[in-house]
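Hey everyone, long-time lurker, first post.

I ran two proteins through the pipeline my lab uses and got sequence/structure pairs for each. Pasting them in order. The first:
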Amino acid sequence: MAILDLTALAAELPPRSRLLGLDLGEKTIGLALSDTLLMVATPMETLARGKFSADAAKLDAIIAKQGVGGIIVGLPLNMDGSDGPSAQSARAFARNFAARSPVPLVMIDERLSTAAVTRTLLDADASRRRRAQVVDKMAAAYILQGALDRLRHLGGR
């Protein structure tokens, strides 16, 4: 499937399907899952990154098991809006995954998502170890929740 924008994704989503949010890091992929009403994003898990084919197979299994109808991928742009190495890597992952999957995919600007989540965890007095365990999946939930809020604003489900 192609990489779409949020408006096109809203038109493609099967009824009662979920969205899967991805926060792509160098070493991990944070995952978050929406409810079937597309109201709430919940942190799910953090996958250790490996070869693309192995990562894609793990995602395929989650997509099938959870009834995922669309994927939201965080796009880590530089503060000036330009692409750096992380954004280029995220774009490559999204292109490769979209080429092999029937599930529509949207890339969402995720500037400052990890910083916002880290700040929240610090405010909650989470230890450094605990922050390291949850920051990626919480960043995925932050990214996904932003997409869900925009979908509602667009008049999506």
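...and the second, right after it:
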Amino acid sequence: MKKGILTVLLCVLASGITAYGVVKVANPQDSETLAAGNPSVEYRTVNLSGSDYPDFTYAAETAVEAVVYVEVTVVRNQQYDIDPFFRYFFGDMAPQSREQKGSGSGVIIREDGYIVTNNHVVDGATKISVTLNNNEVYEATVVGTDPATDVAIIKVDATGLPTIEMGDSDALRLGEWVLAIGSPLSYNLRSTITAGIVSAKGRSMPGSTGEFKIESFIQTDAAVNPGNSGGALVNKEGKLVGINTAIVSQSGSYEGYSFAIPVNIVKRVVADLLDFGTVQRPRLGITMKAIDQKTQRELKLSSMNGVYINEVLSGSSADEAGLKAGDVLIAIDGFLLTDPSSVQARVNNYHPGDRATLTYIRDGKEVTVSVVFQAADAASSASNSGAVDAQGLTSFYGGKIRSASAETLRKFGLSSGVEVVDAGNGELAQSGVKSGFIIQYVNDQLVSTPAQVVEQARKATSGVYLHGVDAKGKVRYYAFGK
């Protein structure tokens, strides 16, 4: 029964606020009937259209024109799971190719046809179709993608398109009203607008498996469903403050939690993709953790803001700036830090070579130093190969790997292999490797553990050659220099 009540309440909240309503009110003077569980009631007509309720009409009507429906066609290879007995006599069956349709949303950011959406909306697409709010349809091409932030840019051949003004996601406040605009669930629900508040900032999604490298999302309770991906999150002024990306749900549909990429991150990624074709990502060079009560007491800190530095990588920007393990980093250019996500989000506002001011606490004293951000280049990812993190994942040329599970090996008919859990942004990803790739051979040597992968790569005298199958079961070869 409680579950049913919850469902009704959610439906009511999603339906919006009406101008007038009939409210049933108990008569406070009738204490006897109240005590008897049969209150005397009266009905009053209440005006709900007053200034106490926000007016979203301007923001909705202006922003919706710049939000588009994105339909993609992807060619998938159907892999057959064949019993080993039949494989012995008849061999493997060739995978069958078939087309699949998918859809999402996008936001026009330039009147000459540039549109921002999610990387996962257009990843692997062989055809992209964009439908504007006025029902005009265009074919689109991919201009650039950044899997680490799940941002992609596509372009249609058109001019004079409606655009949306970009706001400042750093200025968002908890409890502030926002609108989510997109095309949830089906083509028939294009240009759907829902309202909610900012529930949290700098959020890492619960249960994240490392699909996104940048974990600093805006969490809202604006209703978002499959198909909303790539759509706009706007404030009351109709300015873009985020790109809707994901939901956390046990049913596959909206359950009250939605996540958006902050527009300040989107702006920098878009600028880099348009200027350089790839994202110029900086690196501070520390490992860190949030401040807990124990650390606060031990270091006699006035609050739990900032991050505790576990390690400073040798030769990194932080090392050259003089930071040490045990320091508490509390601000970057005056921007107060609250947790590792806020550090990550702030650092990614800069480019390699940019200078910033770091504020940290050491031995109870506040210290300010200048830092120059280095590039998160392949050399750093290579030097870190072999390190194992708290989740048991092994670093490998900027990515994360682990032994493939028995279920995964059965799925692809393999006897051994090492799975790329997160391709990252280093030399591994730059060679073309994507998350889900199963490494079978490194330089023609069969591997079954991450340690063997790292060992064979380190033995290489010229280059590293990988042989395996991708997430669709297709055999792939990749190579990169040392």
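Reply from user beta_strand_b:
Welcome! Quick read of the second one: Confidence is low (pLDDT under 50) at residues 1-41, 206-212. Residues 2-47 form one domain.
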